[in-house]
Amino acid sequence: MVNPADLTLLDALADATERALAEAEIRLPPDVLAALQAAAAAERNGIARQELKNILENIALAGERQIPICQDTGVPVVYLTLPPDIGLSPDLFEGVREGVRRATASIPLRPNVVDPLTRENTGDNTGVGMPAIHVMPGDRLTVTVLPKGAGSENVSRIGMLLPSQAAEIPRFVAETMLLAGGKPCPPVILGIGIGGTFDMAATLAKEALLLPVDTMDDYEQEICDAVNTLGIGPMGLGGDTTALSVKVKRADCHTASLPVAVNVQCWACRRATVEVQR
Amino acid sequence: MTDLTTPLGDEVLSLRAGDRVTLSGAIYTARDEAHLRMMEEGIPFDPKGAVVYHCGPVVQNGRLVVAGPTTSARMNTLTGFLIDAGVRALIGKGGMGPEVVEQLRGRAVYLALTGGCAALAADRMRLSGVYFENLGMAEAVWAIGADRLPLTVGIDAHGGDLFRTVREKAKAQFHQRFNNR
Fold first, then answer.
1. How many domains does chain A have?
2. Is residue B35 annotated as a catalytic residue, yes or no?
3. Stated pTM of the model
4. Separation CA B161–CA B141 (nearest Å)
5. Distance separating alpha carbons of residues A92 and A16, to the nearest angstrom
6. Is B148 within 8 Å of chain A by CB?
7. What is the ipTM of this complex?
8. pLDDT tens digits, residue range B45-76?
9. Residue B136: its pLDDT value, please?
10. Which of A16, A74, A168, A180 has the lowest tally of Cβ within 10 angstroms?
11. What is B2-176's CATH number?
């Protein structure tokens, strides 16, 4: 038997997830838009300026017409915050899954989720382990979505560096972009996870993509500058703007380890948070 | 800025990698499956002066919803027969391999459209027909009327390849910055 109170929570969570996805897929967050505008104003390469102009026009058109910014609407990565009075229950996860199904039909989203080996498409962007749902404690019940496209995800990298190689981290990040070239649809945002364990570094790197891109500390700026000296430019056609921003998250780690993960994000850094109405 | 209109002719030969152009007129979408089908059954449109667009659009009620470019490199080994048949331009993202650079020489060009710009691309395009519809929405050959599509010449008809030039410069910069310490 389903408890009617739980059904309401499930439904409210589905509704919030659907709304968050619609917001993320159609409108870029203000900080990302501002970073693209600043890059367009500063760019010295004529081809790169045209590419950035196309991107900005595309964003405006998607907003006017209420259609997704990019045809690769990604796979949904979801972060929940739970206040103390909400227990962890299967309904929370089912609510998110239901929201993804509704959003796939209503926005609409391209069905991107397939079996990893048979490649059979599930048709509704849910599946085994999909959407990825991360839960953390908070003051309010919120749903944050980060739809992630494949072009940039496919060139992301993790390295188990030696403890003596901390100074090599900027090189590792720049090398990741050198190998990626135009494939991840630059200008990119780079989420960097440093420390933790093998898996935690990757988790931190993805979480870093949720941070505002309009400020960088000295370390983040140093890495961003190193990437931009490569001159890969928007879409790999050359220019000053290869990375819009670099965001770093850290965790302590084993004395014999230095895990470093680079999660590459295309210019369409789509994310949105909605508070669940209950 | 050069304004091109299909069908294309020898005017493509004077373009150079890095030139910006607009393109108007008929273009035809084709991804992996469409290339394979055309090799088997023939090209369903007149290939003389034609433009092939690497794209799998979302079509709803006879209208293009989004129509951004897909990664062209997947078609590296599937492209020669199109150029042999008279196709004068390819549109896509990310550039193509050295074999295609050679196939284009003296005959055709590769034009880059900004990746992710699915709404912009759809705004400048109208559907006019479809071939091989049974391949499915993403893989069918859609006939499209384009209106001043903003493009960059990625690979010209003289072996000039902007993607390769940028890659080589990036490699040199990387080694200069990181390898000598």
1. 2
2. yes
3. 0.92
4. 27
5. 12
6. no
7. 0.90
8. 999 999 999 998 878 888 888 888 988 999 99
9. 85
10. A168
11. 3.20.130.10
